[in-house]
Amino acid sequence: MKYLKLILFFLLLNLVGLDKKVERGFIEWKPISNANGYKVEIRNEKGKLSEFFSDLNIFYPDLDKGNYEFRIAVLNLFRKPVVFSYWNPLKVIQSNLVLLKQKEVNVEKGKKFILIGENFLENTKVTVLKENQKNVLKTNLLSVTKLELMTENLENGIYDIKFENPNQKINQYPKFLKILSTDEIAIHNSSDDDSNSSTSADLIKEKNSEYKKEFSTVINTKDVKINSYSLDKANISMSSEKDKLLVSIGPKTLDKIDINLENKSKEKTIVDIENHSIGEIILNVENKSKEELLMNVDSSSKEKMEINVNESSIGKVNFNLTDKAKKTVKLNNSNQIIDDFDITIENKQTEKLGIQIGDKPIKFTGSDEKFPNNFLILSENEAKSFISTLKRDCPSNLDIPNILIKNCFDDHATLDLEEINKKILYNYLILASDNYSAKMKSLRYFKNYCNPSAKFVSDHLESKLQSNRITSEETIFIKDTLSEFKNCKTLNKP
Fold it and tell me: Would you tell me how many other CB atoms lie within 10 Å of the CB of residue 25?
């Protein structure tokens, strides 16, 4: 056998929580007889390679969102790779409930139609239901906000529509879809229906390039306006913050997005830009004023940001970049013609104008909590008592104590595991969780980095051995880990 044959794989869809059972995606393949384990190699778009080992024919990747490739190798008796599979694509995404913007859709029998909403994916499953009938529709993903559906097998009538995204993200809209005859659709189009109701003809027109819908301005002050068509690609809002008028742009997707900004002010305008996005951002700027547009740019994002200044600009566009921004922000000239602007600066700012892109991390003042001097010799009951006193202020879905958190966001956290005590605490919390794959990973950590060892970890493993609710694989690893604790003499730094 020259290549290992992969049977199937799934996408990683959710972040991992501690002390919570969280559904995750996984890579799974057909087991190979006489295999002594498997090696999983994953590389990102920049070619950086990460290596993992699994004793089972399943692996739960713990990756940031993005595009990757992976391959699997069978291990021989000496735990060395014998043969690798081909490289396979792996896309790490976030799965959320599908949300629709229409109240109902009227479609001519046999015609295609387009849904407008949020969180559509390539593998979004769409089912329509009517009495005892159930039909899965063919789909064509146009974007995360637009999904084209085919209705060739549907009879006239009113249908419920159900959406299923990976990880059991299921919701249903009752009496949403009406399949009508040609005569019925003509009558329906000529009547004054609910403005939130759409026909297939309306939506197909919107798709065609020659048709341009007139969008109203949803936010408009004397200084700045934001156009409603921009809300398809980003959550854009405006507020006042101290002495600053603040425009917040929260991208709806991790895919690269473009934000178009024009300046029409008749006086010099200064804009402070802060980029905290976890995705790539392109900001296209055109200065239609004769006066200078000065942009002060700061970026705490790890992803690159491009700012393109349109060559058709009348006045100067100048920049001040912080040291952080210089590492990730690229300034370009562009001859791209911009038809629609997301943000328009109308007049001189009576207050300073700020543009904040992405969700700013929730600031911790820094945990002043300390590990006790006898932390490593605490019994498990003493360790649990200490852990129960630790603060948990991160309002994400991760139950992680502040002492382990570097930055906290709304839906995830970055960890601070620089100190050995923090590494031990983190892996102990995982051992006490319900996630099998994560527990095996932590067992390997304690086995490989046995000195210093913690008494409460040994207590936990000893009690596990007395339990009837662990697998044979766990039993072997626990015994090996405890043996390493007893015999390990060399300080092994992770």
Answer: 19
